[in-house]
Amino acid sequence: MQYVKNKDHWLKGVMAIRELDDPLVLFHDWLREAKDKEENDPTAACLATASADAVPSARMVLLKDANSDGFVFYTNLESRKGEDLLRNPQAALCFHWKSLRRQVRIEGNVALVSAIEGDEYFATRPRSAQIGAWASSQSKPLQTRFHLEKRVVEYTAKFGLSAIPRPEHWSGYRVAPKRIEFWRHGNFRLHDRLLYERNDTGWRREWLFP
Fold it and tell me: Span 4-112+173-208: which CATH code?
């Protein structure tokens, strides 16, 4: 789908200009295209965190929800990212869709999802992934692969055929965006960059030099 720059707007088909006041409209449109064209993990994003001492760290996570409240991913709360977010609850996400030559950058404050949300999502995961959430002490030292496999066997036996509850150390985070930037490749490195910044009244939109 083609987007056309008209002064300070991106238009798609008959999309009303007023709809672009909300960056989530544009994000979901791009995400739909990515799901059609990206071969692997179109919901994957690079998550950047920083420790209390401002030491940065980055890794890939999978987006599980995105709405006006924020962008949600799930993980082990005792992992390095979990420790970072406990002490410094701010993060950045970067989606890069190579086939579309587009990216979206998101920055904002981070908070845990509710226990109900965490339980509901955990229940949808494959049983093997549920077992894995119990068996893996994510980011902690692992002496041998056998030790991990042994823990998988132990938890498989423990739960048997019963429903597997969500571990207390595993849940989701929501990044409440303060900045969302859309980037689209342009010839001669003259890329399009459209920045949204949230203020007390809503979103402010402006173009940036490439």
Answer: 2.30.110.10
- Which residue ranges make up each domain of the chain? 4-112+173-208
Q: Is position 189 annotated as part of the catalytic site? A: yes
Place of tokens 């890794």: 59
Structure tokens at 23: 């960056």
Spot the catalytic one: 102, 125, 151, 189: 189
Alpha carbon dihedral 112, 114, 115, 117, in 10-degree steps, equals -110
CB–CB of 62/99 below 8 Å? no
3-state secondary structure of 63: coil
pTM assigned to the model: 0.89
| 8 Å CB contact between 202 and 21 | yes
Q: Are 19 and 13 in contact (CB under 8 A)?
A: no
- pLDDT of 15: 41
